[in-house]
Input
Amino acid sequence: MRKGDRTSAETAKLKSQIASLEELLKVLEQASLEQAQSLEFRNIILVTQQETSIDGILIVDENGVVISHNRRFADMWGLAPETILSRNHVEALRPVLNKLVDPDVFIARLRHLYEHREEKGRDEITLKDGRLFDRYSSPMVGPDGTYYGRVWYLRDVTEQVLADRSLKESEEKFRAITDAAPDAVILVDNEGKVLFWNIAAERIFGYASGEVVGQGIHALIIPPRFRNEHLRGFGSFGTTGHEPLIGNTVEVPALRKDGTELPIELSLAAVKLHGSWCATAIARDITERKMADEKVRKLSLAVEGSSDWVLVTDKDGGIEYANRAVEEMSGYKKEEIQGQSPRIFKSGRHDETFYKELWATILSGKTFRGIISNRKKNGELFEVFHTITPLKDGDGNITHFISMAKDVTQQKILEE
Output
């Protein structure tokens, strides 16, 4: 190859290399531009995240010097942004110490975390104006373990904490009230599972609260023979809040833990909690009342069927009750003498002194015993031996009088 040809080839090769280098430079420039744009984009995202956060954010370097913060952080402390950046974190916040309930604890916590770089921290800051800040901090550590600084997050939780405290206080009051109640108070969800069970419920049904919460109420206290009926009635409650017994007070049999039954007075109400229907049940053990009612019923039957006169008046003498024997002896129907005075039976054979002495005796709290001549509705006279006794309340005050008498007309005729 001649010398001129070789020079020309070398020149062409050199131009080709130069062109390749120029192309490479363009690629590198484009990559650098894209990298710069990507970095700028990431910075925009970071700044946007910081500035739109509900938290105050502060970032410090490895020496505790503030390198970034958002406006929310400055606003929460009432600081001008220019007084925070590029300053030591502790010194930057020194102007706010007089706003804190316990500034010494505040500073001590800062210094502790800066001395223990690997630790995360969370605490609550109380301000004198009543605000509460939730403070969280985490170290910034690279993949190789290099410590680059620390990020601080500050959130105003005043409303949330106060709401939580109010809710807790309400729950404690509710618990105190229901635990003092003599009746069982039970709350069940829309599936019939027990949510709440007070002390009276424990006493009445025999189950401790821990045994029943989360369990189905129907299997616990509904006698087996009524269970299916109750389940059918409860079927639509979960979606409608309606059930045949809601809003009513009824007497029903219930089941204790030991398998025995008892009569209860049950009141049900529907309430919506967290968007779901729940039922509140108030149950009263009426065993003693039923027994007392039965005694009263038997006594009433005995009094009503007695052949002796039984008359009850209020303390002023108004007739409130008369048994069948009064009707038979006097000829008056109960409706005719209800609310009347016993003077309706007055025969005229006793003077005023007699009646004054009678009233003086019973108003003094003593029992009167004696024969009184009465007049029937048809005008006939009849003689009765009266026992009139005052009835008193718990304070010893006379409230009623009860007159029990036997017809002694025939006996008087025989004696005469």
